[in-house]
């Protein structure tokens, strides 16, 4: 693992606020929503030299700088599975009527003795179908390879499998995928929080930057 002292200002994968705002100039979105689990919530321990916000709040701040009328809703819950998201988070989401919507990527669905990947795909598909019906631009992450649950010897393969499901559904439903599985930050010794599961705020800053970059591409594609 790479052990380097850095800060948000010197991190090559981060964006300062001015650069992030410039990238999203002309963003059309005024109703930004996030559903899912602790990854969607932006949970993580503080890292010296980095801001304390999770990635979704960072992205909302950038969007609000571009669109001061932005409405933002995050109904994510720590520990939520895709089933939990479907059963308990969709009603407030649909009432909110987002035009930009972030979806979870099945992290808690694979934390069980024998995950049923067929069922995981079916449940995620239900979520994507409901999300697509809102008309919102959809985004999601893939799970990083640094995220490890040692009690499961096949954990790395579980992550690969659920990421493949997410990529397939995203392609089918037109969602933007921010692929974090092979991102260089997975090699950083300070990436994970003390629980060795959640990205620390250094990772949250990078997640936010990669989301902004992906949204900038979406804006440019629709401007052509």
Q: SSE layout and pairings?
A:
Layout: H1 17-23, E1 31-34, H2 38-41, H3 55-66, E2 71-74, H4 82-88, H5 90-96, E3 100-102, H6 117-132, E4 137-141, H7 155-173, E5 176-178, H8 201-223
Parallel strand pairs: 1-2, 1-3, 3-4, 4-5
Structure, described:
- This protein is of the alpha/beta class.
- It has one domain (17-223): Rossmann fold (3-Layer(aba) Sandwich), CATH 3.40.50.1110.
- The chain has 8 helices and 5 strands.
- The protein has helices at residues 17-23, 38-41, 55-66, 82-88, 90-96, 117-132, 155-173, 201-223, and strands at 31-34, 71-74, 100-102, 137-141, 176-178.
- The protein has a 5-stranded parallel β-sheet, with helices on both faces.
- Helix 6 links the parallel strand 3 and strand 4.
- Helix 1 (17-23) packs across helix 3 and helix 4 packs parallel to helix 6 (117-132).
- The model has no long low-confidence stretch (mean pLDDT 96).
Which structural category fits the helices and strands? alpha/beta
Summed up, the domain count is: 1
How does CATH name the architecture? 3-Layer(aba) Sandwich
Please, how many helices?
Answer: 8
Rounded average pLDDT: 96
Q: What share of the residues does DSSP label as strand, in percent?
A: 5-15%
Distance between the termini: 41 Å
- From the spread of the alpha carbons, the general shape counts as globular
Spell the H/E element sequence: HEHHEHHEHEHEH
Give the low-pLDDT segments. Answer: none
Top CATH class:
Alpha Beta
Main sheet: strands, sense, barrel: 5 strands, parallel
Strand count: 5
CATH homologous superfamily assignment: SGNH hydrolase
Q: Give the strand order, joined by hyphens, for the main sheet.
A: 2-1-3-4-5
State the CATH topology: Rossmann fold
Radius of gyration: 17 Å
Helical content, roughly? 40-55%
């Amino acid at each position: 693992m790479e052990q380097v002292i850095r800060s948000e200002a010197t991190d090559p994968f981060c964006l300062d606020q001015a650069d992030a705002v410039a990238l999203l100039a002309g963003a059309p979105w005024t109703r930004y929503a996030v559903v899912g689990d602790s990854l969607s919530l932006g949970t993580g321990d503080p890292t010296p030299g980095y801001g304390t916000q999770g990635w979704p709040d960072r992205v909302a701040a950038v969007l609000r700088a571009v669109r001061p009328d932005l409405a933002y809703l995050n109904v994510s819950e720590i520990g939520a599975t895709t089933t939990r998201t479907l059963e308990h988070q969709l009603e407030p989401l649909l009432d909110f009527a987002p035009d930009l919507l972030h979806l979870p990527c099945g992290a808690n669905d694979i934390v069980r003795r024998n995950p049923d990947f067929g069922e995981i795909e079916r449940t995620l598909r239900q979520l994507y179908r409901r999300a697509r019906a809102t008309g919102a631009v959809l985004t999601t992450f893939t799970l990083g390879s640094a995220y490890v649950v040692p009690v499961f010897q096949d954990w790395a393969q579980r992550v690969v499998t659920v990421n493949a499901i997410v990529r397939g559904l995203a392609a089918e439903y037109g969602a933007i995928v921010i692929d974090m599985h092979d991102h260089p930050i997975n090699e950083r010794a300070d990436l994970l929080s003390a629980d060795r599961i959640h990205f620390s705020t250094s990772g949250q800053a990078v997640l936010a930057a990669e989301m902004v970059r992906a949204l900038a591409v979406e804006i440019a594609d629709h401007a052509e």
